Amino acid sequence: MKGYWIGHVTVDDPEAYQAYRTANAAAFGKYGGRFLVRGGAQEVVEGSLRPRAVVIEFPSIEAARACYDSPEYQRALSLRQPVSFADLCIVEGWE
Asked: Is the whole-model pTM more than 0.90?
């Protein structure tokens, strides 16, 4: 089964956030992550969400978890956390 990261993000400093976007490419490339949604226009029709939505597909749930725990992603994460707030989950896909 494929694995997915589903995130909703509030970016407080878009210029500094760019450093995170650049740094996360190493982890996503290594673990086969592919953006399906990356901050496009969204319409919240129920509840409330942060202004930026992200969905990243991985070849497996194991790859999705390994990417998050990897040193490459943890370095990128250290750039994101000071300039944004996120709700992020790793989910198993459905066949």
From this structure: yes
Going by C-alpha positions, the residue among 7, 15, 12 that lies closest to residue 52 is 7
The per-residue pLDDT for range 54-80, each reduced to its tens digit, is: 999 999 999 999 999 999 999 999 999
Beta bridge partners of 86: 9
Chain Cα centroid distance, residue 47: 21
Q: Name the strands in the sheet holding 34-38, side by side, starting at the edge strand that comes first in the sequence.
A: 34-38, 52-58, 3-11, 84-92
| Cβ count within 10 A of residue 92 | 13
Give the Cα separation of 91 and 95 in Å (integer).
13
> Measuring CA to CA, which residue among 85, 5, 80 is closest to residue 51?
85
34 is written with which tokens?
A: 């592919």
User: What's the rounded Cα separation, in Å, for the pair 32 and 3?
Assistant: 10
